Amino acid sequence: MDLFRLDGKTAIVTGASRGLGAAMADALEEAGAKVVRFSFRSKTLSLPDADILVNNAGIIRRADFLDYSDDDWDAVIEVNLRAVFALSRDFARRLVQRKSGGRIIHIASMLSFQGGIRVAAYTAAKSGLLGLTRAMANELAPLGINVNAIAPGYMATDNTEALRNDPKRSADILARIPAGRWGEPADLAGAVVFLASPASAYVHGAVIAVDGGWLAR
Question: Over the Cα atoms of the chain, what is R_g?
Fold first, then answer.
């Protein structure tokens, strides 16, 4: 038995049109899963039946703390935390009704551990997501549902374009990454397949940092 195969499983990946979401959806498909690439554009979401949920969709708004608007705060918390909670709750309810077990994988961040600069709402949401991962795992593990998270490091995506285009900030970030490079979306492939597969059957409430060694520095 190949513990990393997902044949016969269906996975939902939110925010899968590009970047990290697209790469993780591709990896799950390569492992044998049928993947529903979920558009995350409204508050009312209709879930297909599935076995795996990857909560990847997210937004970021940058501004100095003193100038951070209520509208930007609300928008980021809505997508990055509240909607993840609601989608995960509804998905878990379906798994319990089916008595089938399943996997929920949140996409956290380096800012689940650190404060960051000019991203107050994003940091708050991603820190909250780390706590939510653990709280959900405590309650859902006895029901056969594994809840874990992946914390990507500094990745070459749309969300980091402003940082990568700032010569000083980019140089400062690269100087702290032991691997010496920005991460690529494909770097998340192994972690998402592991957490979605039977190989992680006894893994609950964990956060896997895929960060080129950033947190170890």
Answer: 17
